[in-house]
Write a structure and sequence with these properties.
The protein has 230 residues and is an alpha+beta fold. Helix content is 56%, strand content 20%. The chain starts with 10 loop residues before the first helix and ends with a helix.
């Protein structure tokens, strides 16, 4: 097996690396000859560990030295079990390269055992770090945008009530919050419904009804508080 020969990459490696964004996902192959104990890496696997071909000789011991200390035992158990029984294995773990940078990787492969003796192990490693970071950033942006959008909607709803009932900002928010608690509907949903009605000239009657319901929720809270206090 020629090292670094992309034509010999497993089909599964090409499929996964393509699905995960191509250039954004570093992916490489490895081959371990158990009889000679020779370990071969593709150029990508060298790069993932922070090396260039020729700088070091890859060994099983070197592989484990780059596993995150908290993941090392689990990785060893997974690999050892496959080497005894043969078959496929897969492990998601952290890898620390030669520059002490942490990578989130998926290692998968197949151990071939014949007559109870391990012959070889072929597999691939996918660096998911950039993919996971991108997903995290997108989720964070969505959360921030959602929070800002919710705040804007609530402020609009408060403004509508302030103009409609000639009340202050705090009183308007109290109306929304009290109705939300009474009906078990999220405050943001209540505010969004109010804004939608106010923006539709054909829904004036429904807007009047909605505001009246907000006031009834406040009245019920007031009467309940008075009863408990009395």
């Amino acid at each position: 097996m020629a090292e670094g020969d992309s034509t010999l990459q497993p089909k599964s490696l090409k499929t996964y690396s393509s699905a995960l964004g191509g250039a954004d996902c570093l992916a490489g192959t490895f081959h371990y000859d158990a009889l000679s104990q020779e370990l071969q890496w593709s150029d990508e696997v060298y790069a993932l560990h922070g090396y260039q071909r020729g700088e070091i000789v890859p060994t099983i011991e070197l592989v484990y030295s780059h596993k995150h200390p908290d993941d090392r035992d689990r990785c060893h158990e997974t690999f050892a079990a496959a080497c005894v029984s043969g078959g496929y294995f897969c492990s998601y773990h952290r890898l620390i390269d030669s520059r002490l940078r942490e990578h989130r990787v998926l290692t998968a492969g197949e151990a071939v055992v014949e007559s109870g003796v391990l012959q070889r192990v072929d597999g691939f490693i996918l660096d998911l770090t950039a993919t996971l970071q991108s997903e995290t950033e997108r989720a964070a942006r969505a959360a921030v945008e959602g929070a800002l959008g919710t705040r804007s909607t609530i402020e609009q709803a408060k403004g509508i009530l302030m103009g409609f009932l000639r009340i202050g900002s705090e009183a308007a928010f109290d109306l929304l919050a009290t109705h939300s608690q009474h009906t078990n509907i999220k405050l943001a949903s209540t505010a969004a419904d109010l804004v939608e009605l106010a923006n539709n000239p054909q829904q004036i009657a429904l807007l009047d009804t909605f505001v009246a319901e907000l006031q009834r929720s406040m009245d019920r809270r007031t009467r309940k508080g008075a009863a408990q206090g009395g």
